[in-house]
Amino acid sequence: MKSKILIAVCICLVPFITQAQIKGLMQKAKSKVNQRADSKVDKAMDDALDKAEGKPANDIAAAPTTQPVQPAPEVSSVKSFSKYDFVAGEKVIYYNSFDSDAEGELPTGWNTNGSGEVVTLNMLEGKWLRMHKGFMYLTDNTKQLPENYTMEFDVVMQLKNNGWMFPELRFGLLAYNNDTANLNIYLKERKKYAAFTATIYPGDKQAKANLESFVDEKKYFYTENKVFESLPQYYGKVAHIALQVQKERLRIWVNEEKLFDLPKAISTTYKMDQLFFEVSPTNYAEEQYGMFVSNIKIAGGLPDTRHKLVDEGKFSTTSILFDVNKATIKPESAGVLKEIADVLNQNTDIHIKITGHTDSDGKAEANLTLSQKRAEAIKDELVNNYSIDASRIETEGKGATQPIADDKTKEGKATNRRVEFTKL
Fold first, then answer.
1. Rounded to whole angstroms, how far apart are CA atoms 6 and 33?
2. Is residue 196 part of a domain?
3. What residues form DSSP beta bridges with 228?
4. Are residues 246 and 263 in the same domain?
5. In the chain, is it the N or the C terminus that has fewer CB atoms within a 10 Å radius of its CB?
6. Does 39 score more than 80 pLDDT?
7. CA gap 306, 315 in Å, rounded
8. Domains held by the chain: number
9. 58 lies in a domain?
10. What is the DSSP pairing of strand 194-201 with strand 419-423?
11. Can you tell me the distance from the alpha carbon of 92 to that of 296, in angstroms, rounded to the nearest whole number?
């Protein structure tokens, strides 16, 4: 076998060598072949010894920690989220996609009891915060939340079974009760005033999730573990998590699936102030897993689509999301699109104009074109998937020419990236 490999190597090198070099290269090729063969033998012996000693096989160590092991999800059609009924709040309170943060550093203003860094991921858009096992992370939000609000973020779980239990992902909100934002004490004592925590327990075949809330360090509410079968298909891909709070009521979605709808889950004794994330300890080495989060948005209020469009004649939303610099509608836009379609189907005499708006990043002409294409994409979605008569809909794009918020802030930019529906 070695002889055949040696001959094949020499044949490949013939066009590039002289007669005088052949003897030396033959010896070098022979040495190289032997070296590779020895390496394979060594690896086989190491694997056998590891197995005998009870060590788990390390078959993902070579995968870079800043790249998911699978490509972005194939799910791209809004129609695939047909059961999704989440609609974001009307006013953006907090937004962060780490666009202005330096790679390799913790995001500006965040706090942690360990380490974390902003990274880019292969085949995925934007920047992401990589979180590490055993550590908690507090965002840079400083605004107290109203009694009704929504929260969204994207997460990538880079997980591959290596013989140990996967690390758990925890997220939720806590109350500062007029303390200074991001105090170190809340990295360990998030239950001091009030908090709720959702925990996802990833598994190889299925995941589980539960929720618990606290008031004055005492448990206020909790759920049993709920089986979450669809999550493993998203390992290494983007999963979208959304929460909606209406006073005591809490609802949580992961992608299209509604995990919880709990009428009395949260105490109203304190108002929530801060979003946190936490990754549990695990036996996995750092290079064997990855937990990443991005595109975080908290919005206040609960939109009343029908009243705004039918009675007031105008409905504006930041809930219709698109791929970066594209007119491709993201699946998690399905909730608000369905609400608009329901209003139009129930009020068949209404004609509307869809107006797309962007922030000021990029060239003005490109933004104008992009906003027009996005408005047209929404019209196509309403016509093709919700059976709205095309003659009832006009479209236009305004680019960044009509901002309604400070375009120098992250929250202002998120607010300006909106779509308006106007009754004609």
1. 7
2. yes
3. 207
4. yes
5. N
6. no
7. 9
8. 3
9. no
10. unpaired
11. 11
